[in-house]
Amino acid sequence: MTSLVKGFREFILRGNVVDLAVGIVIGAAFGAVVTAFVDGILNPLIGAIFGQPNLDNIWTITINDSSILPGVFLTAVLNFLLIALAVYSMIVVPMNKLAERTKKPEEPAAAPVTPDDVILLKEIRDLLAAQGKGSAS
Asked: pTM for the complete prediction?
């Protein structure tokens, strides 16, 4: 029983579990902010354009007392795109700019170092070439 408690304690105190918990809490809080942005700003803009805050009742098709509502799907797609746009413009772009500002300039690559044996072989080659020219005359 004590090994189970000890193992559970080690599991909980691992950094990735705590990071995951913090990420979930922050994600839920940020989800509320994004939802408020979409519901309070973007959807009223859509309402001003289309005359209603969503597209749920647009193109309603009725067949045998059954209603097909493609507008519900369009509203979901539009909300997804608006949320993605909001997240991109409010988080991704500023974070990328911050990362560019804090990025350390890359140092130029050092010239490759020629190993000693290669240098020696080149010297031998040059000497042999010089001897070959001297004996040919």
From this structure: 0.49
